[in-house]
Amino acid sequence: MTAADAPPLAAVEQLVKRFPLTRGVMLRRRLGEVPAVDGVTLHVHEGESLGIVGETGSGKSTLARILLNLLEPTSGIVRWRGEDVTHARSAQLAALRRKRQLVFQDPMGSLNPRKTVGAAIADPFAIHGLLPERAERARRVGELLEQVGLEAALANRYPHELSGGMRQRVGIARAIALGPELLVADEPVSALDVSIQAQILTLLRELRRELGLTLVLIAHDLAVVRHMCDRVAVMRHGQLVEVAPVEELYRAPRADYTRELLAAVPRIPGAAPAPPQSSSSSST
Amino acid sequence: MAAYVLRRVLWGLVLLVLVSLLTFVVFYVLPTADPAQLRAGRNASPALLHEIRRTLGLDRPLPAQYWTFLSQLLFHANLGFSYYSQASVGSLLLDRLPATISLTVGAVVIWIAVAVPLGVISAVRRGTWVDKLTTGGALLGISAPVYWLGLVALYLFSSDIGKFPLLPGAGSYVPLTQDPWKWFTSLILPWLVLASTFCAVYARLLRGNMIEVLSEDYVRTARAKGLSERRVVWRHALRAAVTPLVTLAGLDVGLLLGGAVLTETVFGIPGIGALNYDAILHADYPVIQGTVLLAAIFVIVANLLVDIAYAYLDPRVRER
Amino acid sequence: MSATASPALHVADLRVAFETPDGLLQAVDGVSFEVAAGRTLGIVGESGSGKTVAAMTAIGLTRGARVRTSGHVLLDGEDLLAASPARLRALRGDALAMVFQDPLSALHPLMRVGDQIAEAVRAHRPGVSKAAARARAVELLEQVALPDAGRRAGAYPHELSGGMRQRVTIAMALANEPRVLIADEPTTALDVTVQKQILALLARLRDELGMAMVLITHDLGVVAEAADEVAVMYAGRIVEQAPAAELFAAPQHPYTWGLLRSMPRLEAPVGAELVPIPGRPPSLIHPPSGCRFHPRCPYARERHREVDPALEPLAGAPSHRVACLLSEAERRAIWEQLAAGASPEDARAAVESAGPVPSAGAAEPPA
User: Fold this and answer.
1) Tell me: the pLDDT tens digits for A59-113?
2) Backbone angles phi and psi of C115, in degrees to 5
3) How far apart are CA B253 and CA A123, in angstroms?
4) CB contact under 8 A, A26 and B319
5) B97-318: which CATH number, 3.30.1330.10, 1.10.3720.10, 1.10.230.10, 3.90.180.10?
6) Which residues in chain A are contacts of C277 at CB distance < 8 A?
7) Which residues on adjacent β-strands are paired with residue A242?
8) What's the ipTM?
């Protein structure tokens, strides 16, 4: 957690992003605009894990992309360590890219099927002109693969030869290759089987601890967000409905919408396991 | 909608002007035959040549010539007169148009009527002999040059020189109004020859689309509803797979209406294509310009119609 | 588990194998279950478990040259696997209906939704006029609570939201009042609030029409809310089967435990560790020897590599069946440990150190 006077690691202020809505193939008349993000102000503190939760059309993915300068906002400011980077270009942007990385939802779609896994992970080095020595790069790629729980020998495989979970690990390895400070994960486990989801979530938690990453997790699954995050922001129709520390949000939500969301999550009856450290057996 | 069409029409006009300019430049700037020379024949005296040039207006500066042409066209709807035959270009075009239209329409009907069932069946019975036969036939159709195919067809079936004289040979075309039966029989071979290439391409294209569509979820749903396989294939799958073909057909028709040069020449059909070919041989610039512009108009209109049609065929395109 | 009346759908020893270039892929390997009218069976499994193949085989959509099927699928006593294609077609969309996962791709993009529903009606009632079928389509859309049904019937699928589209597919499936409805991941592609509505809708319709429902999903939460009985599938087999309440109160199979422990739960304390199931789902062409789950099971013993357990009822609860070589008592003990928060290793150690447990079932000597 950061000291009260230091600026947040990343922030958006009064962020607005509108997409034009057109109709008709010929006329393309402007019906108006869709506000994907409608005046959002949100801070990401260094070292924390922030969850952004929302349903389809809430704008959470758009927000994440603007935060990483992958999209330009219609209006509003994007900050990095207090500095205005909304319209960052070339050199400044490249430097920022090294510090902020994204893990995508679809592991198959985000890996170039023609490149080996090793090449995909080594890409960031090549792009930023780091580790020019091939041997050095290969060694680092091997290290990264092991760090995400894969064998170094997998570097020579192609994405289609791996399972979904393994591909997602590769995506994570690529994202942490440059040693970023901020990792944004956009629905990192939605496309995976339940038993693999747990593996990936556990991996993300471990990496966060090991590397001191700040994590922004975007998800529609409330339970996942609760498990992974310190603070949670709830979005709806492009607006921020509620932001609160995780315990508070789930135990005593203030907004009606948050309550609605929580009520809709199907509950599993029976004992929910207590954390392993507790000595007494407690069933909720 | 009206604004859209208007915009497209205006752009079309701009395009036509550019096309005419390009034709003009190509004809006059690039080394071509000298129309005056061709008109005058051999052993023409320089005085005669000079006289012909003056008559045809060829001795004036190029921009002036172009301007004369353009102003005549825009203000008087006059395409000029053929260097070769002195006939008005407009009348020549109108004369030849019906033949080209006959050829085009007939060929289109044939190739669509054949390509659609072939494409569907070879997709549904993928890997069987039907499929292999179609694919092989398609390869043949695509690779065989039209003029070769035409000559072979004449060699085999034409009543004057053919091995199995069944159908009228080259040059036997008569307008529909004159003798419907002769018109029809004289066009059978040209129709089949012209259709063969397109049919092959369309059948292959449809086969590919159908194979993809048949594996889509909504086809599975149609089966799950208990619909007959026939309905699933012909109403659900085909409907989705055929859209690209319709647009392609529109464009091809536009192209063919500008004249199928090879087919018309081989079979001696007096259409726009043949007119164009002759005009080139005679360095008959006004006629060349006329046929090129006509072809361009057809293509532009076809494009516009195809775009509009696509929106009706695929409602997803209507909104973003 | 079986109703006193004969069940609407009875699957007996279903096996489905696909011939692939790499070998014979046994997608479903001896699956049996029953669903009575008015009840919902939830089939839970991940990819490769065989749940979807089983469902698709039941409605006859997996028939093909390279597919080998055996067993019985009885719909009101009639064996669907032995039925002719024409008979199956008559039943599909009529007595036996299916709802699929992604409503956007499941609906024909170029046909209006009302027409698609009307088509389903006329396919099985040829005497019905087009107008009447369209009217029925609107009626069905109202039944599935689609707002502004009359106007929406003329819409194309892409013009509707995800929840509305799924209502359309449900309306289409119900067009001819099916006896059995199979829903394959019907809410996976939907938002959680919409999911709640759709599950409630399905339950209401099931009761109104007296259907037997099979709900296939990977989400244990969905099953907990919507199913009366649950079958957990792994590697083409059912590994545990029980009434829903019992399954969650006292799960008996290590895979079920693994699923429960690896899912983040709203009820668990914040920061509780997830315990992932190690490894990956097995190959169905060369499945593991003995118990198929043993490579990933923290409690496996030597013998489990050789012996393939059958699905057997528990001594005290005949409606609860498990395919596991551990003894009932041991399993109960392990689950107690797990529920208290122990890791699988600790649970195993604790149980084994307690020595051989006297039990009604066959006792498993400590390894």
Assistant:
1) 898 999 999 999 889 999 999 998 898 888 888 888 888 899 999 888 778 888 8
2) -65, -35
3) 48
4) no
5) 1.10.3720.10
6) 195, 198
7) A234
8) 0.82
